[in-house]
Structures are given as C-alpha cells and as structure tokens.
TrEMBL record:
<comment type="function">
    <text>Catalyzes the second two steps of the methylation pathway of phosphatidylcholine biosynthesis, the SAM-dependent methylation of phosphatidylmonomethylethanolamine (PMME) to phosphatidyldimethylethanolamine (PDME) and of PDME to phosphatidylcholine (PC).</text>
</comment>
<keyword id="KW-1208">Phospholipid metabolism</keyword>
<keyword id="KW-0812">Transmembrane</keyword>
<dbReference type="GO" id="GO:0032259">
    <property type="term" value="P:methylation"/>
</dbReference>
<feature type="intramembrane region" description="Helical">
    <location>
        <begin position="16"/>
        <end position="36"/>
    </location>
</feature>
<keyword id="KW-0256">Endoplasmic reticulum</keyword>
<keyword id="KW-0444">Lipid biosynthesis</keyword>
<dbReference type="InterPro" id="IPR007318">
    <property type="entry name" value="Phopholipid_MeTrfase"/>
</dbReference>
<keyword id="KW-0443">Lipid metabolism</keyword>
<keyword id="KW-0496">Mitochondrion</keyword>
<keyword id="KW-0949">S-adenosyl-L-methionine</keyword>
<comment type="pathway">
    <text>Phospholipid metabolism; phosphatidylcholine biosynthesis.</text>
</comment>
<protein>
    <recommendedName>
        <fullName>Phosphatidyl-N-methylethanolamine N-methyltransferase</fullName>
        <ecNumber>2.1.1.71</ecNumber>
    </recommendedName>
</protein>
<dbReference type="GO" id="GO:0031966">
    <property type="term" value="C:mitochondrial membrane"/>
</dbReference>
<dbReference type="GO" id="GO:0000773">
    <property type="term" value="F:phosphatidyl-N-methylethanolamine N-methyltransferase activity"/>
</dbReference>
<dbReference type="InterPro" id="IPR024960">
    <property type="entry name" value="PEMT/MFAP"/>
</dbReference>
<feature type="transmembrane region" description="Helical">
    <location>
        <begin position="12"/>
        <end position="34"/>
    </location>
</feature>
C-alpha cells in the first residue's frame, strides 16, 4: 500500500474528467427519471413510435448508460494508481470478480423483470400484476443498482483509483436518492392510479 498525498488526492478528485464523470452519473439518472415521467403523463414516445416504443426506449437507456460508463472509465484511467490499497494481482482478481458479479446481478434482474419492466415499462403502461419477489429481489430491493455499483467499484479496484472509489460512492448515493425521492413516489402514483381505475370499473360492473 502506497502513502497517500492528500493534496494530490484532492487535485485528482476535482479534475475535469472526474467532475465530468460525476455529472454523467447524475445526468443518466435524471435522464431516465424525466423521460419516464414525460412518457407516463403524455405518452409522447408511444404516440410517436407505436406500441413497440418501450423497446426503442430500452435501447436508448442502454446507450445512455454506456456513455456514462465511458466517461467514468476515462476518469479512472487518468487517475489510475492514485490510491493503491492492494497488490496488483489481488486488485485485478478482486476488481474483475466484483465487476463480473455486478454484470451477473444485472442480467439476473433482467431475467426477473423482463426488458419492459427493467426499463421503465410501468411508465409505458406495462404494469405488473404483483411485486416481484423472486430472483435477485430475494436479497435486494433494487438489484440493478447494486449490480451497477458493484461493477463500478470493481473497476475502481482494478485501476486502484481514488476517483474510481469516489465515483462508485457517488453512483450509489445518487441511486438511493433517486429511488427514495423520485422513482419510488412515481411508481406508487402509477399503481395507485391503476387501483383507482380498477375500482371504477368494478363499480360500473
């Protein structure tokens, strides 16, 4: 383990690539939250593209995530070796294992939810009949965010990057804020509205 120069560390964390990566993390989360709410309230994507709009939207979100990951990777590369906590062999083994675990968790989540519900399908009118409790949901409430954060942390370990560790932490915090204050309330509203509609239909019958 190398000694840490606090001044160099601070300079590294406040560098343009790191700030850009932090911005990319926030922008991606804002992107899928804003577009999901716009679709729910206006059906703009469905009207423009048709019933398969959700699949185009899923591709769009995947590309958005890849763009975010590219910016994060650039920040870690330029900061590689700034915070050496492990011997190189251990760092690579641990980091790549954590990255692989994160990808597998995300694929497991995709299997449990399906493409539509993995990518804001609720906002497109594809509501689920019951809460998913199987698969990764046995262990986490939001496994896709656990998987993505694991993958980011894994690469931070591989690069032994202080910026990488900071970005992994920022990613996790942004996800939690999104779930608590934006995504959670939005989903509650969607399903509450469906319950009201179902109740009206029952009364008419």
């Amino acid at each position: 383990m190398s000694s840490v120069n606090i001044s160099q560390l601070a300079t590294s964390l406040l560098s343009v690539p790191v700030l850009a990566a932090a911005g990319a993390i926030v922008a991606h989360v804002a992107n899928y939250n804003v577009t999901a709410q716009i679709e729910y309230n206006t059906r703009i994507f469905t009207k423009a593209i048709g019933k398969n709009a959700i699949y185009f939207y899923a591709v769009y979100l995947i590309l958005s995530a890849l763009a975010r990951d590219y910016v994060i990777d650039l920040a870690m590369v330029q900061d590689a070796g700034s915070l050496v906590l492990f011997p190189t062999t251990i760092a690579q083994s641990l980091g790549y294992s954590l990255f692989a675990a994160g990808i597998l968790i995300n694929l497991w989540t995709l299997k449990a939810l399906g493409i539509k519900n993995m990518y804001n399908g609720d906002s497109f009118g594809f509501l689920m009949d019951e809460i998913v409790t199987g698969g990764p949901y046995q262990y986490w409430n939001d496994p896709q965010y656990v998987g993505t954060s694991f993958a980011c942390l894994g690469y931070a370990i591989v690069y032994q990057s202080a910026a990488g560790y900071a970005l992994a932490a920022i990613m996790w915090v942004v996800f939690q804020i999104s779930v608590k204050f934006i995504e959670g309330p939005h989903l509650t509203r969607i399903y509450a509205n469906r319950a009201k509609e179902d109740a009206k239909k029952t009364k008419k019958e």
